[in-house]
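Bug: token stream looks shifted between consecutive jobs. Job 1:
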Amino acid sequence: MKKLLIALVLVMGAIVVNAQTTPVKVADLQKSITDNIAKDYVGFTIKDATKVVEKNVVTYNVVITKGTTQETLCYDSTGKFLKKMGAKAGVTKEAPKSTTKPTTKK
């Protein structure tokens, strides 16, 4: 069991060393990133952004929201759009279903 725990700690340490994330202020994002979001994601607002450095490659992950929808977009170091990483939508609860049968009057 100890060997498994040690191996897990070493693997997690290697992952942390390989990818470093740093929060970025929305105001500090490159103009090309904010322009792309304004053009292609009308009505969305930037919630937060992070700078990711992995194997000497810099990317920016930008979380945008509109209502209950949240998406994460990935940009390269020059501000070029790379990919959409995911979309999440808020869950709305349905009204509880009635367990009683409707009665009819005769």
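Job 2, same session, no restart:
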Amino acid sequence: MQKKGLIKERVSEGNKKLDALITVLFFLGLILLLWEIFIYRRTIIELKIPLLIWLIPGIFLTPLLYDKFNKIDGMRAHWILHYVAHTCLTGAFLLFGFMALNFYVADDYSIHKQFEIIRKGSLPGPKGHRDERKPYVEIDYNGLEKQLVFKHSETEKIDSAKFVNLTVRKGLWGYDILDQYDVK
């Protein structure tokens, strides 16, 4: 049976239970990615590190498991779909594990730091509230640009601020965690 698009032909009857498990794990991976974004915003880390942890597993697993994955759902799918599946399954779980361990197993000892604001801006507010933009500031955190987002109600305070006061802790893997931040 021929199909148009990325799925081409049926290769077996498949394994419905394993296919359902993979589907559930895929969506769980997407939820973990959303949670990881929250953790990323509070972690001082170069973006390329989380991106590599998330994207690299799919590069290795796609060719290794291509035939096995096709037999699970019974359809021969394009390799791009396999890459997306491995990225959202394995990559998302590995990335969340890395970032969550750094974030939740951080030192108890806090350090207070102050940085000059190098840039200011605003992000769109929630849908339906376009006039409630969220202000942000960017700082140079020891050579790494970090964006700090504030509540809409703090817009006037952000507009007149020149410095940011941070309270940070050292994460498990050595990446600093933002406990609190405010402008001065």
